[in-house]
Amino acid sequence: MQPVNRSNTAIGVTSSANELLRKTYMLLGGTLVFSGLTAYYAMVTNAAPVSIVILLVGYFGLLFATNALRKSPWGIVAVFALTGFMGYTLGPIINMYLHQYANGQQIVFTALGSTGLIFFALSAYTITTKKDFSYLGGFLMVAITGAVLLSLIGFFFHAPMLSLVVSGAFILLSSGLILFQTSLIVNGGETSYIMATVTLYVALFNLFVSLLNILGAFSGRSN
């Protein structure tokens, strides 16, 4: 039996992880640009807010399609369809803050800048330290499911305070999701850059929307 060269194995894992990280960030960058374009289109056309039913059906349907196609070239198409759809739903939300709040532009740009800062800080920390955050997986799944259910309750029963609590929870959970997913990539626990991209995009989307909600709650409406 030949002895295992652990140094070569480690080098192979690191090389594979770096390639996966590169592909993930390239695809994530592309989806963010495309998502921004669809959001801008929704804004300039004054698109109506997407109903909660269409949002949930569209999101979970496209997420299922992306997962099913992740190993084929069509997976890329599914990713852009999903992120483009989510970007479109974001357009009316941004318009609402811009038109209904006295400091709407400040709210939007503060939320956008804070989202970018949080993402880069957490990603840099995980990539630099290579700390394993895979233990967060089970907790994040349960906690995010609970937060989604609470957000639906807050939406249907018009509970502003519950909405703020849920937004705060989503900021923490989305930050944990960034740590978790980046850790999986860096430590060889993730093999699909398509699904890694989707996870990071969803974390960024929820971060941005949650920050908008919290910042808006402490700002005055213009009408």
What does this structure look like?
- The protein has helices spanning 6-44, 52-68, 74-100, 104-129, 137-156, 160-186, 193-217.
- It is mainly α and 223 residues long.
- It has one domain (6-217).
- Helix 2 (52-68) runs antiparallel to helix 3 (74-100), helix 3 (74-100) packs across helix 4 and helix 5 (137-156) packs antiparallel against helix 6.
- The longest helix has 39 residues, at 6-44.
Low-confidence stretches: 1-13
Order of helices and strands: HHHHHHH
What is the count of distinct domains?
1
Taken from the alpha-carbon principal axes, the silhouette is: globular
Helix vs. strand class: mainly alpha
Residue share in helix: over 70%
* Distance between the ends: 77 Å
Report the mean per-residue pLDDT as an integer: 89
Rg measurement, Å: 19 Å
**Major sheet: size, sense and barrel closure?**
none
DSSP summary, beta strand count: 0
Q: What percentage of amino acids are in beta strands? A: under 5%
* Annotation field: number of helices: 7
